[in-house]
Amino acid sequence: MVNVIIEVSKYLMILLMAVYTYLNFSYFRYREEWGQKRVCRRQNVAMFLMHFVAYLILYLKSEDERVALFYLAQVVFLGAYIGLYQIFYRNLTRILVNNMCMLLCVSWIMMTRLSLDKALRQFVIVALAALVTWVIPFIMDRVWQLSRIPWVYAFLGLACLIIVWMVGNNSYGAQLSVSMGGFSLQPSEFVKISFVFFVATMFYRSVDFRTVAVTTVMAAAHVLVLVLSKDLGSALIFFVTYLSMLFVATGNWFYLLAGSLGGCGASVLAYGLFVHVRTRVAAWRNPWADIDNRGYQITQSLFAIGTGGWFGMGLFQGMPYKIPVVEKDFVFAAISEELGGIFAVCVLLICLGCFLQFMMVAVRMQALFYKLIAFGLGMEYIIQVFLTVGGVIKFIPSTGVTLPLISYGGSSALSTFIMFGVVQGLYILKRNDEEDYEESEA
Amino acid sequence: MKKARPDAQPNKSILFFTYLIAGVFACMIGYFGYFLQFRGENVINNSYNARLDRFADRIVRGELLSNDGRVLARTDTGEDGTERRVYPYGSLFAHGIGYSDHGKTGLESLANFYLLTSHINLAERTFNELSNVKNIGDNVITTLDVDLQQAASDALGERRGAVVVMEPDTGKVLAVVSKPGFDPNTLDSDWDALISGDNTNAQLLNRAFQGLYPPGSTFKIIIMLEYIRENPDTWRDFTFDCDGLYEQGEYTISCYHGNAHGHQNLEQAFANSCNGAFAALGLQMSPGGVHDLAEQLLFNGELPLSLAYSKSSFTMNEGADTWEILQTSIGQGNTQMTPVHNAMLTAAIANGGVLMKPYLVERVENAAGEEIKRFLPEAYGNLLTAAEADTLAELMRRVVTEGTGSAVRTDAYEVAGKTGSAEFEYGRETHAWFTGFAPAEDPQIVVTVVVEEAGSGGQVAAPVARSIFDTYFAR
Ligand SMILES: [Zn+2]
């Protein structure tokens, strides 16, 4: 009987997810505020229904009261987050808040399915992150000094990366994190943000050749330290983000082309120089040749995705735990296996929707400083999504980065919350400005 | 300060990247969809995918059927719900069908995904789910032919060896015989003895796909082709006087049992399998050229096969010494080949140079007999030109009409083929080979036979092929 409920609920969840995703894009059709608000309310309904169905299954299958309590805690959190944000920040982009909540729902569902303990820990971290980052829009509105301290961002960020490189814990051959009093921190997640602030402040001051040269040297230093730490995914994110910010600031095609060529050259060099790069590329090109070792993770991921098909196996019907580090780098495979390929594509589209929101904010901001921040953070976010999902489905070689807001991990959750908070702050700033302007006109 | 100069350029750049990212994501989602729709099934049907075993909790494994619908493997469910895999033909299909209880081999492995997927109608499926009854998995109709398999197995008898029968124009594999075999019904109780270190019979090995044998005189087909390619206009002018022993410096190559063939042109030398003539021929050719041709003909490489197989090997190359050239030219030396590979080369010759990918799964049906999926013939590519294929076919026909292949000479149908007697250890009887097809003018069936340590190809292997041809053309 439970099998039938799982089977039916599987399709129901896909349907609700598809409706939510559709609303996400239909949002752009509405110019008037009431239309947008109606879309957002419908999204909330779809999300809470999907969340409920998923936890009903999780509860039926696990028969653990903690799951039910956990569900209630999540509902309280989501309700409070959505509600309070609206009350305190009148002019926010609700759709971005909704998307964050939806991605968090997907994350909690998969984490609960994989390991309730980890899910609980992740929930606590997310709740704290939400609380801390709550004030960011408020700060953004008042602290214009943020644009005056480029070298603080640069050297603080670089110092963090160097520390990780020197004393970092080794996980899967890369130095990613440092341990402090029982907590493991992944500084590169936060350096991503300081890096964007650094580049934005520099280019806000000037885009003359000297500034560009100095900024490029600092950016290259970041990338180099990450490569030395064997954190290729982050190195790639930093590199592409810098290049695109440079292009937005200067509009100079020469910089973009030279940078792209330089990046290709560096990739070839890295391929020749580092064994672990060659290993990853070999595992990507033909994982079946070494299915027991190097190809194991990616082939297990493909088995999961392929076996799940378009509609998924249903929660608890697959074997996502067969994939090494499934809750981090390969969570997308677990989603695809149990919730279905359609559901997974919806998750991707929601991520893309977040990116579009970031870009809309970037386009609307007047000051180049703000523009670059919104754009840079958006690029970092979407490149990370691309690298992790592309790696999981064997579209590109795996680079070992996580899926923001969905993968297990505190640093990533907190830094993503900061990113979204900053962009939310920019949006609110802009809207408040517009209102002031309209009032003074009237 | 907040209201800086309005500037359209950064926004253009931002839009540029927005479209770029959207495009990249469209490609990625497209790839993901392509994988799910078209690649997924092939990928997940892998013995490393533990997920398929879980399917068995909810699905009764489907049946494997012969090409005319006879049951080759089925699952019986007892009163108490225990399931048992039954193989009605016992050891007859042991290597082609394989087994599913000690790991999976053969078609049991190849078709695992289909056997564990149910396509019975939705209402019945839902009803079964509700009442906690397992659904019936799909049936897989193979290309295997019971009569040909039986004929091949009977003809081989108790001798060790292998037979492959296939259709040259489709690639359908009609029979796979490997002796000695085993009975998959009693695999559980026989298992320890079968894998014991004292067991030298290697019953579990599929000799047809995995057995490596020196090709002997069947390799003269390839030497012949290389000679024709190197001397397209003059190859028919080659002559050789055979006194049974061919001496080249300190080395001697003898014809089978030291028979003297007398004056031979190249067609006769091929038909009579004159070792001396081919050894002399080999010395006139470039060893590197033979190496390249062998690799074009899939030596040292992957074969387009879905069942487990061994790679054939060919090592002679530019700079080889005289002895190696002499040996390699008559199919001895280091050259090693599987029977299925030999069958594939013969099939390409019979099919105008085009190799069709060999396949064993014809179609998938649900338990009610409705077709779910059908597999169509697929070309692998041209191994040789149509003209070369015609020439070789004509030469192989003469092997039967005038040479060593007299055992398959009959008025009922016309066979073209090549025999081989491969030495593998000094002082022991040769492995007997025959590979050929019929009818010579319009080939419908390819038969490749190897009988281990049994004598000459013409006397031992060709008669096995004869009884398979007889069975095929009797209907
Ligand atoms: Zn001779």
Largest sheet of chain B: 6 strands, mixed
Q: In oligomeric terms, what are we looking at?
A: heterodimer
How much helicity do the residues of chain B have?
A: 25-40%
Between the first and last Cα atoms of chain A, what is the distance in angstroms? 65 Å
Question: What report would you give on this structure?
Answer:
Chain A is an all-alpha fold and 442 residues long. Chain A has 2 domains: 2-134 and 308-367 and 401-441, no CATH class; 147-273. Chain A is 76% helix and 3% strand. In chain A, strand 2 and strand 3 (183-185) form a beta hairpin. By secondary structure, chain B is α+β, with helices and mostly antiparallel strands. Chain B has a domain at 210-360 and 377-473: DD-peptidase/beta-lactamase superfamily (Beta-lactamase, 3-Layer(aba) Sandwich). Chain B has helices at residues 8-44, 51-55, 94-97, 106-110, 112-115, 122-130, 146-156, 187-195, 207-210, 220-230, 266-272, 275-283, 287-296, 322-329, 339-350, 386-402, 457-473; strands at 59-60, 64-65, 71-77, 83-86, 135-136, 139-142, 161-166, 173-179, 239-242, 245-248, 251-254, 262-265, 354-356, 361-365, 371-374, 379-382, 416-422, 431-438, 445-451. In chain B, the strands form 6 sheets. Chain B has a 6-stranded mixed sheet, with no helix packed on it. Chain B has a 5-stranded antiparallel sheet with strand order 8-7-19-18-17, sandwiched between helices. In chain B, strands 1-5 form a two-stranded parallel ribbon. The longest helix of chain B is centred in the N-terminal third of the chain and has 37 residues, at 8-44. Residues 1-5 of chain B have low confidence and may be disordered. Chains A and B meet through helix 1, helix 10, helix 13, helix 15 and helix 16 of A and helix 1, helix 2 and helix 6 of B. Zinc ion binds at residues 242, 255, 261, 274-276 of chain B.
